[in-house]
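Researcher: I need the complex structure. Ligand is glycyl-adenosine-5'-phosphate. Inputs:
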Amino acid sequence: MEQLISLCKRRGFIFQGSEIYGGLAGTWDYGPLGSELKRNIQNAWWKMFVTDREDMYGVDAAILMNQNVWKASGHVGGFVDPLVEDLVTKKRYRADHILEQNNINPLGMNLDDMSKAISDNGIKSPDGNVFGEVRTFNMMFHTNVGAIQDETSISYLRPETAQGMFVNFKNVVDSLHPKLPFGLGQIGKAFRNEIAPRDFVFRSREFEQMEIEYFVKEQDWEGRFSDWINSMYEWMDLVGIPRSSVHELEVAKEDLAHYSKRTMDFEFDFPFGRKELYGLAYRTNFDLNNHAEASKVGLYVVDDETSEKVVPHCIEPTFGLDRTILAVLASAYHEEGEGDDKRIVLKLKPSIAPYKVCVSPLLRNKPELMDKARALHSAMKKVFGNVTWDDNGNIGKRYRRQDEIGTPYCIVVDFDTLGENTDLLDTVTVRDRDTGTQERVAISNLEQFLKEKMQ
Ligand code: GAP
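Model: Output:
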């Protein structure tokens, strides 16, 4: 994990938030390469789950919402984590994490059970002090909208993107008239005032979610739930998260979120242990019913066959974007070779790699090589978008640098390209990141060659 974090900082993937001021706990900034990787993943998700499908519609709802949304959704009353305080230092901890660290499984425990387990087992804080009683802590960040700060102006930074889709259900039904089953998809920021942010971008206070609310007839939910399990695995294949590192966890009834009748977590073998990557929940018609009741606006579709009003049930596949990035990076990270031959290589899928190609002149003090390579760089950029340039140091070092950031192909323009060897005029060397093999390819055939390789 340390090596991965170091690579992320050194090569411009992910930085600590507000770093020059000492940071802000639980926040991370994506640098030039990280934001490219992130955008590629977002675009792949949107394509797979929204634009490639006929039963999906995208939305992009406001982060700030009417406070009644969060009352109806149950978040004001119930979006809490168990908190325990060191009675001397006043530092606060997640009670379930403290229990886990002491080899006690907190699953299914209520607040009293946790307090009792802490005191019966004589568990002390990391500073060696006694803990107080375990209590709840609401994780929503709140703010006031407008100049007046009173109860009526309270709003929250959304803790999940899901509610933005439920409250737009009627707008989408009225404007596009979708038939069941259909879904809404959204990508966006979510905020949680985590008691203990940790493990790099795994648990932060500001993060991004890619969520789907898929509406079905009640009797169809089990079949659709299974379909979504398969689709979620297909997504992991697409971005390079190996199925062998993913484990299904059926969440026990007593541990289900307040809205769920069945939840399956997809856990991933992160470098710090097996932890939740994604979730798939059957939310019943809990959200639509609650919002309809609280807003007094009917949230239903009219059944074509029976003309009855139906409140659909909802299956929710949810994907943390930052956890996806971490799982993708951890899966792609390889160290190979020994001594001087040692290299770090990010074996990213070409479709999500920050740079698709790197173009280099063999030497930078030869204007003819530079001109030819520059022209090729511009041409490649037009085709592949994010193509980088490197003319620094020897070719071996350039390859190492590109390996470390996951660039799948390096193109070198040399004297043969210029016709020193007439048979090789207008050809270049293409080097493959994963195998290290080099091929001579005609510039006229380069686009086709690389496109086939990247499939
Ligand atoms: N709408 C359902 C929902 O929000 P969740 O399990 O609380 O369910 C969904 O969150 C996903 O969001 C998680 O599976 C995880 O990938 C991501 N996630 C949750 N909390 C996070 C945090 N503090 N930092 C980074 N990602 C987080």
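Model: Summary of the prediction. The chain has 14 helices and 24 strands.
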